[in-house]
Amino acid sequence: MIAWRLFSLHSENILMGENRMEALANTVRHLPGIDDIVVEDPDEASGWDGSLDLVSRKKRVRLLVECKRRLFPRDVGELLSKRQIGVDDFPVMVAESISPGARVLLQKQGVNYWDSSGSIFLNLPWAVYLVDRPAPRESSRRTKNLYRGSSAVVVHRMLLEHKRGWKVQELAHESDVSLATVHQVFTTLEELGMLSRSGKGPQTVRHLEEPGQLLDSWASQHSLRDYTWKRFYRLSRSPEELEQAVADVLRSSPSVIYGLTLEAGAARVAPWVTTLERWSVILENSTDGLEDQLKRQGFRAVDEGENLLLLICSEPSPLQCLQEVGGLWVASPVQLYLDLKASPRRGKEQALHLRNERLGY
Questions:
Q1: What fold is seen in the domain 2-135?
Q2: What is the pLDDT of residues 212-252, one digit of tens each?
Q3: Phi (first) and psi of residue 341, to 5 degrees
């Protein structure tokens, strides 16, 4: 058997409005080794939405097509329960968008699929074909919305207490968000196959099944450029002197909400480096009042070469669940991981160390 991992196919068939059966057929026609293809109308008695007959090297198989608008891991079992699958019949799920988790699950179970991004998986007797493209924009936006605004606060809390069972009202109260926001997050995570539920009605409890997958998804969309950067430099004779100057500024501004992050934060909860060359601090909204304190301590604004970096956030999540360590506030382990993973300065190594030490998933 030949395994084809294809990176370039004709893409005129990827339009959302085009008939999905024809779009699938057009993609299959361009696969290596396909000699002939026949599109057949749906047979209502079979329960399938259509079929394709393929011929390759005098071998003939039938693709039984099930059409969906969107496909998530929880939907995969529905296809597998279909009847009337013959020896030479191969089910294939066709959708406008298929989530990354559903793609992996379908591949593991040997179920073929195609979506409007042009991604396709076909496990046929003579070859295995795989084209893996980013999810369509609608699916990407849906996932990205998890990591913005109040939804990100909910996800943040769930990742910090990933073994806990959650009721809607409890999570809404502890996260200080609306019940509607929690419902929306739960619905999305269930569709992505990351959340399970038990019980009924108000007593329903949700459990996060895939915290590592959820954290990876968030990290893939997080950027330090989401913050507004302000750089400062102070001439110091030693790292200890710099640390004392930063600490003095933060402690002298009790009304300022902040959290140490990157190397400065990780050094206090999961040490990796022995010497800090730069201190990074997340701040809420603005630096009003703090910059005067910085000037008194000998800091000046610079364009590069800073040893103090202020990261101004417009989102509520980065300053959630702060922890006090050594008299200073530090970002949560989840936020530290996200920031370190996004940092080009050896951040990925530190992020992995922090994840192993403090998160455990």
A1: Trna Endonuclease; Chain: A, domain 1 (3.40.1350)
A2: 989 999 999 999 999 999 999 999 999 999 999 999 999 98
A3: -60, -30
